[in-house]
Amino acid sequence: MTAQKRSVAILTSGGDCAGMNAAVSTVVKLALYRGCNTYVIREGYEGLVKGNGDDVSMEHAERDVTYLNNIPLSYHCGDFFRLGDFDGGDSSLSHRYIVKIGWDDVRGWNQMGGTLIGTARCKEFRERDGRLKAAFNLIRNGIDSLVVCGGDGSLTGADILRTEWPELVQELHSSGKISEEQAQRFMHLHIAGLVGSIDNDLTSTELTIGASTALQRICESLNSISSTASSHSRAFVVEVMGRHCGWLALMAGIASGADYVFIPERPPPEDWRQDLKDKLLKTREQGKRKSIVVLAEGAIDRELQPITADMVAAVLRDLHLDTRVTTLGHTQRGGSPDANDRILATLQAIDALEALMEDDPGKPSYIIGITQGRVRRLPLRDSIAHNNLLPEAIKEKRFDDAMKLRGKEFNDGIKTFLYNSIQMDGKALTDEPLTIGIIHVGAPAGGINAAARTAVRFCLHHGHTPLLIQNGFKGLIKGQIDKAKWLRVDSWASSGGSELGINRQLPDTDLDAVATQLEKHKIQGLLIIGGFEAFQSIKIMSEARQSHAPFRIPMVALPATLSNNLPLNEYSVGTYTSLDVLCRTCDMILQSASSSRNRVFVLEVQGGHCGFLPVMAGVAVSASLVYTPEKGVTLTQLDEDLKFLRRRFKADPEDSNDGRLVICSEKASLVYRAPFISDIFGKEGGEIFDSRYERLSHQLQGDTPSPLDRVEASRLAVKCCEFLEKHAGSACAWDPPSAMITMRQGEVQITPVSQMVEHADFSFRRGKEQWWSACEQYVDIISGRLSI
Ligand code: ADP
Prior knowledge:
alpha/beta; 4 domains; 7-stranded mixed β-sheet; Rossmann fold; globular; about 40% helix; 27 helices; binds adenosine-5'-diphosphate; about 800 residues; 26 strands
């Protein structure tokens, strides 16, 4: 007996967020790839409860469907969903909430904000009767597997539905609404959850879909507010979303260099008005012309009383500051998803589908989350229960417990924010004040100024002397070194490029001169911010300790490079920024194609000998093909790819104008380079499509860095400074530690440079192991190359 073909549906529910469309599109494609019937449910649980009325036939949808290798391409023109024009476009859709869907119906969805299949709050689903209707509609449409993308409310609903399912089926059967055969076949509902929430409020996952885009929107607004605040020497109180979760407020505070934040998990001291006044006055005494306070909408005091924006503004006005209140509201939800949300949603959706396929009645239902930097399955029930602990802790004023529940990164965030915002004049002195050098080496990467800023402020906070070294080792040799002041680095939180000046010169161009300058300025610890060159610089100086005593100081590197090519390290500052630039560029390119004709764009990107950037961008924008240095390019492969492109374009409706992206690493091949590949595709595409070559190089270093890069840069800078402080005692030791602060499986680690050397491939300037290589196959699946 052959197994029943699985039928998978996805719905989006609760508050909308960026990235939901990428999740829907990926679940649809993966389900089709796995040979399932595939549906979307419009308007969340509302659609599930309403179903399709008495119309359960899907035949109307089957009429004009084109198949390619058994994959249905389109039941509707995808634009119906984009336009929400169900009445005007396809009247058969206006009363149908459970809609069969094909591969091309979800084309180009990754870049769209909100949710194209609609979301709603559904009271009826909260009641058992509503869920009974939902169960009936699922069964009568033959759906046995459901993916729910939404916040904790929606996922709680999913959990309840799954728990009640056997009883609901039983009841439907006893009342004669479903047959015995249906009751047998649908005895179990396979269910998986994806966490879509702009607040990042689910305790069991590190980042929810939609949160980083919302942070991006907030920081864009804060950037604009900052300049006008500075012009008029004003104070601004900015209210952001987050009823029970301060993630957005805290991270926006770090990324934008705000002066004070109010969050629900960690209310301010009892006399918060005085505390706020003291802190802001100190920054004004330093000469700061603007004051920015970020307030989560759920901010409370230690007695659980709300702290409102107007209350905060009143305090600032007491200080005679010209104060304005801005509530950012729904702008935070909107707009095109950033690269992180597209990637997160895609990778999690892939796993959600796999979880459904592997599910059986003995297993728990999962939500797909991210812990320790990896996409993971977390039992749905436990995750919801864990999440409920947080509001309870706040309600009972157990704020320390609330903070613990938020996890390490959040707690690091508080520390980072305090170092950056408080003007301490070295009052938190250590017994042994140090002189610490801070230098940028390599090429600009979004966030390196934020890293230097945090390092300076950490040092000042602890009574150390931070020395800013200008223009890398070139400047160091010339003695371009000066003491950093608190205010000098103020605007560096969000600035792009390198405020210190940066180049690729290594210290071995003149080791003696480097040592002389370190000695002359009595530098007792060195923080090097950069990519492979930062790693190499530390290696070179550590190895020269025998001959050069000034190198016998602790040294630490902070990884910052868009190539993300450092050994034993999964994240480098600058990668979020570059991926954002790549996504925005690809969106523009595709728009140009849809206005003109069928066209392939071969986009060449930087990234050295490391394929991280093209592969992750390929996932984010659903590229048709990706070429990496690790795999290279061969003629046979080009021939295969060309066949795929021809087949793909030929299957498009007549008269369609479409663009398809090929992302090619600048070092994918020495022979078959991107312009050449584009020429071949253009020539061989003949009448079907043409091809254009584009190159993205220094643009990838970004303009304003991504907020996630700024936040991580600041967090890593604190870790670097703590490392230098801890090992300063070994300044006179012959071989003090040299390390890089790295990120592995979501954990910040201190990796000795000697260990990194073992894992480095120096000829290709990359790590020997590439943690992201598993993602390459996803590009092939999502583009349809493996199925179509
Ligand atoms: P979010 O999913 O963004 O947290 P809501 O809390 O409004 O948003 O939940 C969205 C929908 O999920 C609700 O309108 C309701 O249909 C369903 N839902 C929420 N909580 C429950 C519950 N306890 N039982 C059943 N359904 C629920």
